[in-house]
Write a structure and sequence with these properties.
The complex is a heterodimer of chains A (225) and B (334).
Chain A lengths: L26 H12 L2 H4 L3 E3 L8 H23 L3 H4 L1 H30 L8 H23 L4 H16 L11 H30 L14
Chain B lengths: L7 H4 L5 E3 L2 H23 L9 H7 L1 H13 L26 H5 L7 H12 L5 H12 L2 H15 L3 E2 L5 E2 L8 H14 L1 H7 L10 H9 L2 H8 L23 H6 L19 H17 L10 H4 L3 H4 L1 H10 L8
Antiparallel strand pairs in B: 2-3
The chains are: A mainly alpha (225), B mainly alpha (334).
Chain lengths: 225, 334
C-alpha cells in the first residue's frame, strides 16, 4: 500500500492538462457563474468598506444578528429539555432568562436598525428588495415572538392566548391559527417561524453583501437619476 | 445606467475606503450581546407567574366559578354565543361593511358550551355517584324552558350566595331542580383538579389543545381580575405589558395604541369602525401599515421623507464634514 503522505508524482510522459476554460453548460454551471458574479467571496467576506460606515447606525444590524444567534441557541436548549423544564429547574429558568432577554435585545436592535435604514433611505440604488426582505423578517419575528409568549405555559400565556384569539378570529383565521392550541403554537414557535426568520436573515445578509452599503443621501459625487 | 446595474467599482467611485474586519466585528458583537444578556439574566431573571387552573379558580373564587358554570349550562356566556370558529352564534362576530371574514370562515374549533363544559364532564364523573346520574337524567329529560327557569333562579340566587371560610358555598334556597346537584358536583370536580383533565380529554391519548379549558376560564371573571392586577388588560395597553415589572412586547405599541383611541374604542364609531369591530379594524389598519412599510421604496412622498427630515445629516455627519473639508473633491484611495 502506498504511503498517503508521500509526494505525488505524475508520469512526465502523460499528456499536458487541458487549459481551464469555464465553458461548461447546464444548470450547475449556470448557477455557479451567477453566484460568482453576484456574490464573489471578496464581497461575502470584505476587508475594505466605505469610510462612511463609521456610524453607530451600522452597528445595529450586526448586534441584531448577534441577539438572534443567542436567541436561537437558548431556544434550542429550552426545546431540547421540553416545554415544562424551565418551570421546575433553576438551570432551565436561567436559560429561559437568556431567551427572554435575547428577545428584548433582538427587537430593540432590529427596530433601531429599521429606523436607521429608514432615515438613511437604505432602499436606494437598487436595494428595494433588501428593504422588503427586512420588513418581512420584522413581521415574521413578531409572529414568532407571539407564539413564544403563548407557549410559556404560565399565566402570561393563558392571558395572551385568550385575548389574542378575538383578533385572530375576527380575521377568519381563528380555525387555521388557534392560539389556544398549545401543540400548534409550539410547533410553529420552535420550528417553522425560527427557520423562516433565520433563512430570511441569511438572504438579507447576502443581499447587503452583494449590493454593498448604500451611498449617503445627497452624496456630492452621485449624479441624480 | 441604473444604479442597481453598476458594479461596485463604479458605484463606489469617489468614496474613501477603509480597512474593515467583518469577522472581528461579528465576534465582538456576539460577545458583547452575550455579556449583556447574561448580566440581565443573572441580575433580573425572567417572569414566570404560575398558570391558573380550574382547580385554583374554583378554590379561590367558587361563586364566580359556579356563576360561569351555570352560565355555560344555560348557554348564556360569551363563548356559548361567540360565533365562528367555535359555534354558530353571533355574539362575537365582527364585520366591516360587507366584509365578514369571521362568518365566511365558518366553524373549525367546535364548542358546544352546555355539553362540552358541563354535561359531558359530569357524565364522565357519574361512576359510583347515583345522585349525580339521577340529576343529569332529570335535567336532560326536562323541557328547555324548564331548564332555563331552574338556571335563572339558581344564577339569581348565586348573587346572594355566601362563602364560608372553609370554602363552603351556601346558596339561598329556591326552585333549582337538579341544577343544585349538578353545580355542586361541578365545584367538587373542579376543586379536585378533575375538571382540568376532563376538559382536555378527547378521543385520543396525547393532548396538546387547551381550547376548551382556556375558553371556560375566559368566560369567568377570575382570570380577568388577576390580569387587571398585573395591568395586562387592554385599557392598560396590556398587549405590550408583561407580568411583574418586566418589559413586555414593546414592539406592539402601535398595534395596541389603536385600541385606546376613537373610532376604535367608541360606541358610535366612524366609517363603520367602532368598538364592536375593533379587532378586525385594528388588524386591518396594521396590515395596511405593514404593506406601506414594505412598499416604502416605491411610494413617492413616503420614500422622500428621509430627504425632507434630514436625520441622515446626523447618521453621516462625519462623512459630510469630510466632504466639506475636502471640497467634495475626494478621489478613490484604494
Amino acid at each position: 500500500m502506498s504511503d498517503e503522505r508521500a509526494p505525488v508524482t505524475i508520469d512526465p510522459s502523460a499528456p499536458a492538462a487541458q487549459p481551464v476554460v469555464d465553458d461548461a453548460t447546464g444548470w450547475t454551471a449556470s448557477v455557479r457563474r451567477r453566484v460568482e458574479k453576484t456574490l464573489p467571496i471578496t464581497e461575502l467576506l470584505p476587508t475594505k468598506q466605505p469610510a462612511y460606515i463609521g456610524s453607530w447606525v451600522y452597528v445595529f444590524g450586526v448586534v441584531t444578528i448577534a441577539a438572534l444567534f443567542w436567541l436561537v441557541i437558548s431556544g434550542v436548549v429550552l426545546a431540547f429539555f421540553g416545554s415544562a423544564w424551565w418551570h421546575v429547574s433553576s438551570v432551565g429558568h436561567f436559560f429561559n432568562s437568556i431567551h427572554f432577554w435575547s428577545v428584548q435585545m433582538f427587537f430593540i436592535f432590529m427596530v433601531l436598525h429599521l429606523w436607521g435604514q429608514f432615515w438613511g433611505a437604505g432602499w436606494r440604488d437598487g436595494r428595494a428588495k433588501t428593504w422588503m426582505v427586512g420588513v418581512v423578517i420584522f413581521s415574521i419575528s413578531v409572529g414568532t415572538a407571539f407564539t413564544g409568549y403563548v407557549v410559556q405555559q404560565n399565566f402570561d400565556s393563558q392571558w395572551i392566548a385568550i385575548n389574542a384569539k378575538d383578533a385572530i378570529n375576527s380575521t377568519g383565521f381563528g380555525g387555521l391559527f388557534n392560539a389556544l392550541n398549545f401543540g400548534q403554537m409550539y410547533g410553529l414557535h420552535v420550528m417553522l417561524f425560527p427557520i423562516g426568520v433565520t433563512l430570511l436573515v441569511v438572504l438579507h445578509i447576502i443581499q447587503v453583501r452583494a449590493k454593498g452599503v448604500v451611498r449617503p443621501i445627497d452624496d456630492p459625487f452621485q449624479v441624480a437619476p | 445606467m441604473k444604479a442597481s446595474k453598476v458594479d461596485k467599482q463604479t458605484y463606489y467611485r469617489g468614496v474613501r475606503m477603509i480597512p474593515y474586519d467583518l469577522l472581528k466585528e461579528v465576534t465582538i458583537a456576539m460577545v458583547a450581546v452575550l455579556g449583556v444578556v447574561l448580566i440581565l439574566s443573572a441580575v433580573l431573571s425572567s417572569p414566570d407567574v404560575p398558570s391558573v387552573t380550574l382547580q385554583t379558580w374554583s378554590k379561590a373564587n367558587p361563586i364566580d366559578f359556579l356563576t360561569t358554570a351555570s352560565g355555560e349550562l344555560s348557554g348564556s356566556t360569551v363563548v356559548a354565543g361567540y360565533g365562528p370558529p367555535y359555534n354558530s352564534g353571533t355574539g362575537s362576530v365582527q364585520s366591516w361593511g360587507p366584509l365578514e371574514p369571521q362568518q365566511w370562515a365558518g366553524v373549525h374549533v367546535p364548542i358546544d358550551a352546555p355539553n362540552d363544559f358541563v354535561l359531558q364532564p359530569l357524565t364522565q364523573a357519574t361512576a359510583g355517584d347515583a345522585e349525580l346520574a339521577a340529576a343529569l337524567t332529570a335535567y336532560q329529560a326536562a323541557p328547555s324552558d324548564q331548564q332555563q327557569k331552574w338556571l335563572t333562579s339558581y344564577t339569581t340566587a348565586l348573587g346572594t350566595a355566601t362563602l364560608a371560610s372553609d370554602g363552603t358555598v351556601t346558596v339561598p334556597s329556591g326552585d333549582f331542580g337538579p341544577v343544585t346537584v349538578l353545580m355542586n358536583r361541578m365545584l367538587t370536580l373542579a376543586r379536585s383538579g378533575g375538571l382540568d383533565a376532563l376538559l382536555l380529554t378527547s378521543d385520543h391519548f396525547y393532548q396538546t389543545d387547551f381550547s376548551r379549558a382556556l375558553l371556560f376560564l375566559d368566560d369567568g371573571g377570575y382570570i380577568a381580575d388577576l390580569a387587571t392586577q398585573q395591568k395586562l388588560i387592554g385599557s392598560d395597553w396590556g398587549v405590550m405589558n408583561e407580568t411583574g415589572r418586566y418589559p413586555g412586547s414593546a414592539w406592539l405599541w402601535l398595534y395596541t395604541m389603536w385600541y385606546q383611541i376613537p373610532p376604535f374604542n367608541s360606541s358610535t364609531g366612524f366609517l363603520g369602525i367602532s368598538a364592536a369591530n375593533t379587532d378586525l379594524a385594528v388588524v386591518g389598519v396594521m396590515l395596511l401599515l405593514t404593506a406601506l412599510l414594505f412598499l416604502v421604496p416605491f411610494i413617492p412622498g413616503l420614500r422622500d421623507i428621509p430627504r425632507w427630515i434630514p436625520i441622515h445629516k446626523l447618521i453621516w455627519r462625519r462623512h459630510y464634514a469630510e466632504m466639506r473639508r475636502t471640497g467634495a473633491t475626494n478621489t478613490m484611495q484604494q
